[in-house]
């Protein structure tokens, strides 16, 4: 089953400056989530399935996603946490000009393919290859854990920051 939730203002009505529309949806376990917006923030937490998000100019934030991640925004920033990747999976985190900040676990078991004309800032080892005359002007690769999955991380001009995230361990 597919469910669509759409926020639309009445005809002839416009949002006032600073006004927003907020939708909260509780998605059942095993149901994929796809979110599309023009300029609004997309935030997903605890989705127990695949997560796909697209925005023209809005920021995207995610954490606790149990399935595949496929997010893309035009001028917005992306901030997320990625847990251990499923073997043979392909995931994407893309923005045209925004920054990307990812918190990654040490047993991610993935090869990250990075590209930007901005800065790579990372707590992991990254092999960087310049690409003169092309945008993005450098590509990088990081293997975190075993190279069992692929994660594409691209920003034409923004910074890509990879942070080491510790997993919770009860005392």
Concise overview:
This protein is mainly beta and 171 residues long. Helices cover 0% and strands 42% of the residues.
Rg over C-alpha atoms, rounded to the nearest angstrom: 17 Å
Low-confidence stretches: none
Give the termini distance in whole angstroms: 42 Å
Helix content: under 10%
Strand content: 35-45%
User: Main β-sheet, in a few words?
Assistant: 8 strands, mixed
Question: From N to C, what is the helix and strand string?
Answer: EEEEEEEEEEEEEE
Placed side by side, the strands forming the largest sheet appear as 1-3-5-7-13-9-12-11
Overall shape: globular
Structural classification: mainly beta
Tally the helices: what do you get? Answer: 0
Chain-averaged pLDDT? 93
Number of strands: 14
What does this structure look like?
- This protein is mostly beta strands.
- The chain is built from no helices and 14 strands.
- It has strands at residues 33-37, 42-45, 51-55, 60-63, 69-73, 78-82, 90-95, 100-104, 110-116, 120-122, 127-130, 138-144, 149-155, 160-164.
- An eight-stranded mixed β-sheet has the order 1-3-5-7-13-9-12-11, with no helix packed on it.
- The chain starts with 32 loop residues before the first strand and ends in a 7-residue tail after the last strand.
């Amino acid at each position: 089953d597919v469910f669509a939730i759409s926020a639309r203002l009445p005809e002839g009505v416009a949002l006032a400056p600073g006004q927003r529309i907020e939708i909260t949806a509780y998605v059942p376990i095993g149901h994929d989530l796809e979110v599309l917006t023009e300029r609004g923030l997309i935030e997903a937490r605890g989705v127990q399935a695949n997560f796909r998000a697209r925005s023209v100019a809005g920021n995207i934030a995610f954490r606790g996603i149990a399935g595949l991640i496929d997010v893309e925004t035009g001028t917005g920033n992306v901030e997320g946490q990625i847990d251990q990747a499923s073997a043979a999976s392909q995931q994407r985190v893309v923005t045209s000009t925004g920054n990307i900040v990812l918190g990654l676990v040490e047993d991610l078991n993935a090869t990250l393919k990075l590209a930007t004309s901005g800065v790579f800032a990372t707590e992991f080892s990254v092999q960087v290859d310049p690409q003169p005359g092309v945008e993005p002007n450098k590509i990088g690769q990081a293997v975190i854990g075993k190279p069992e999955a692929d994660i594409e991380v691209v920003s034409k001009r923004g910074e890509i920051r990879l942070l080491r995230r510790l997993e919770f361990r009860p005392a």
